[in-house]
């Protein structure tokens, strides 16, 4: 029986591109679904993101070399080890991040991808498909959610070459959008729209083949775009030959067992140990193995139910049985009244109804089970009045054994689902803000040492701590130093390496923040020097703003203002032409500084105006 392997790559914090918001979350969400919902063992799923933990000592930071090493490993071509894939296995490959079309070739951009050197820093799609074609497994599925960098303008459409390669090499490939469209992510979903639709499809338990997945995505992705006010994108599936479209998504589909096919269309045999804990069946089969016959269990259950009913009726109508509503007052001081001894049929009921000492009766009957159901307290009084003839039927059955055995075995199974739910709730709290990761860490910390899922929780906390620092660094790159420092201060102190890096970054950003404030004062001074309609005041403002050197905070803002003010000077020159004064127009246009956007236009206008002067 074949296995399913998967690799998910998601990159937010690029070294040479604007950060993406949710590519890393896309990969993480898909990895979570593979390992938790579809039951694929975590050692068959590889997560490569900005903040993913190393796997068996191997880096998962999505640099070009690292991505090549892992893909070579899966294909069996790499130096790391022999491929874990075998004939009959399936392989999923998912990528969320930037993609670039360059000289007619498509590239995935690793975290260190450089737009100035795409061919040597990007990951060629031709190389990727060739590598996957060598993988020693039966089927490979590729999912590409490629974003186009705004900084790169290409004459060819991203995805066209990818579709051609997928068709040539016979690898079924989903593209998040058509080559003429753009793939979107949204803060409402905290995911890419394409990835969100894929997750919904796989969770729906109705999608089992490529054809069914394609049909779902073609309907759902445009719906999500429309709902979240994004331009429409239409996913593209490339399949060659066409009959491959009916391939199942995982190897076990079509061979489901009666125990799993009714609820989950994916293989239950691959579920990790934490999700398949044994106490569940024992909660249903508490009797010893030698007495586990069906009829005997049924008879015991019937006796137990009958005993509960009789005891309930007895307690509800005890005054009718005793005929003396004052009996509780006689039974309590029973030692002072010798005539109370023959009336021994009542004391068994009296303490349960009125005596606060009833809680002292429960522990001997249900040791260690004080919190569960209130039913044991209703049954407890029945065994005590053994001598009287008023209740002979419920006594021999010993009904207390029925409620004690049912709830008791259910307890061992509780910690694991609870911790798994905690970790799931922590992961769903993740978003694009540092505070989201702080909340997730706080939830994960509720899992204590020695409990199930503790190690996984610690791995997630490490990854989320690094993500907080990544968010801070992204803010600093945008000049938001105060916000960057606020985020970096949220890095947990019990992660020494990450916390130390955060403290070093805070010191650096504080200095840059001070420089930013100083430069902001320079811009304010320049702005205050401007007098409406006075060209010379714009020149003075430009000279002041040019005191901010390249590489310092506010430099780009200063350049924007300089260009705006130079256009203002040129507009004043045009106004002089309208007033009939070419001489003043030429004088003012000559003030437009060099190395500004308006300077070439100003020089052209001056030439035209001087030509007019000579023609007069």
From TrEMBL:
UniProt cross-references to InterPro entries, sorted A to Z: Caspase-like_dom_sf
Composition bias, Low complexity: 330-358, 398-408
Ranges of compositional bias, category Pro residues: 364-375, 382-397
Protein name (database record): Peptidase C14
Region (Disordered): 326-419
Species this chain originates from: Desertifilum tharense IPPAS B-1220
Signal peptide coordinates: none
């Amino acid at each position: 029986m074949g296995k399913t392997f998967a690799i998910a790559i998601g990159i937010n914090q690029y070294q040479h591109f604007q950060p993406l918001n949710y590519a890393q979350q896309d990969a993480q969400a898909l990895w979570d679904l593979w390992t938790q919902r579809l039951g694929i063992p975590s050692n068959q799923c590889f997560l490569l993101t900005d903040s993913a933990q190393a796997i068996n000592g191997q880096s998962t930071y999505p640099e070009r070399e690292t991505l090549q090493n892992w893909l070579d490993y899966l294909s069996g071509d790499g130096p790391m080890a022999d491929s874990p894939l075998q004939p009959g296995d399936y392989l999923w490959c998912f990528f969320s991040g930037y993609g670039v079309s360059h000289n007619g070739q498509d590239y995935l951009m690793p975290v260190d991808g450089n737009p100035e050197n795409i061919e040597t820093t990007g990951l060629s799609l031709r190389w990727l498909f060739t590598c996957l074609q060598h993988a020693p497994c039966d089927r490979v599925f590729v999912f590409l959610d490629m974003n186009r960098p705004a900084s790169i303008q290409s004459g060819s459409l991203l995805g066209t070459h990818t579709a051609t390669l997928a068709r040539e090499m016979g690898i079924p490939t989903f593209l998040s959008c058509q080559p003429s469209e753009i793939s979107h992510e949204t803060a409402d979903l905290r995911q890419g729209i394409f990835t969100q639709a894929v997750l919904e499809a796989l969770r729906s338990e109705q999608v089992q083949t490529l054809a069914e997945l394609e049909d779902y995505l073609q309907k759902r992705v445009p719906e999500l775009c429309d709902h979240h006010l994004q331009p429409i994108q239409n996913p593209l599936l490339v399949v060659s030959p066409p009959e491959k479209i009916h391939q199942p998504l995982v190897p076990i589909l079509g061979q489901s067992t009666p125990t799993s096919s009714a609820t989950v269309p994916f293989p239950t045999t691959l579920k990790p140990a934490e999700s398949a804990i044994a106490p569940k069946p024992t909660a249903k089969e508490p009797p010893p193995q030698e007495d586990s016959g069906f009829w005997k269990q049924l008879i015991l259950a019937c006796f137990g139910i009958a005993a509960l009913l009789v005891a309930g009726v007895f307690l509800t109508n005890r005054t009718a049985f005793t005929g003396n509503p004052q009996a509780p007052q006689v039974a309590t001081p029973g030692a002072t009244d010798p005539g109370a001894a023959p009336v021994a049929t009542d004391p068994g009921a009296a303490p349960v109804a009125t005596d606060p000492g009833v809680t002292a009766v429960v522990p001997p009957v249900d040791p260690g089970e004080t919190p569960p159901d209130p039913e044991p307290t209703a049954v407890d009084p029945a065994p005590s009045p053994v001598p009287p003839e008023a209740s002979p039927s419920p006594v021999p059955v010993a009904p207390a054994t029925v409620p004690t055995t049912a709830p008791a075995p259910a307890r061992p199974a509780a910690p694991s689902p609870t911790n798994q739910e905690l970790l799931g709730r922590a992961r769903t709290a993740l978003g694009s803000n540092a505070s989201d990761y702080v909340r997730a860490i706080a939830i994960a910390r509720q899992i204590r040492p020695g409990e199930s899922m503790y190690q996984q929780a610690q791995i997630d906390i490490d990854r989320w701590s690094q993500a907080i620092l990544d968010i801070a660094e992204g803010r600093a790159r945008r000049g938001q130093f105060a916000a960057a420092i606020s985020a970096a201060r949220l890095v947990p102190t019990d992660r020494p390496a990450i916390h130390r890096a955060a403290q070093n970054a805070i010191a650096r950003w504080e200095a840059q923040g001070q420089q930013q404030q100083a430069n902001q004062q320079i811009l304010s001074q320049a702005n205050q020097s401007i007098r409406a309609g006075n060209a010379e005041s714009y020149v003075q403002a430009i000279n002041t703003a040019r005191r901010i050197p390249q590489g310092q905070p506010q430099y780009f803002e200063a350049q924007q203002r300089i260009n705006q003010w130079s256009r203002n000077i040129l507009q004043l020159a045009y106004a002089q032409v309208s007033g009939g004064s070419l001489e003043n127009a030429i004088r003012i246009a000559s003030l437009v500084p060099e190395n500004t956007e308006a300077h070439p236009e100003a020089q052209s206008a001056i030439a035209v105006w001087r030509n007019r002067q000579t023609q007069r």
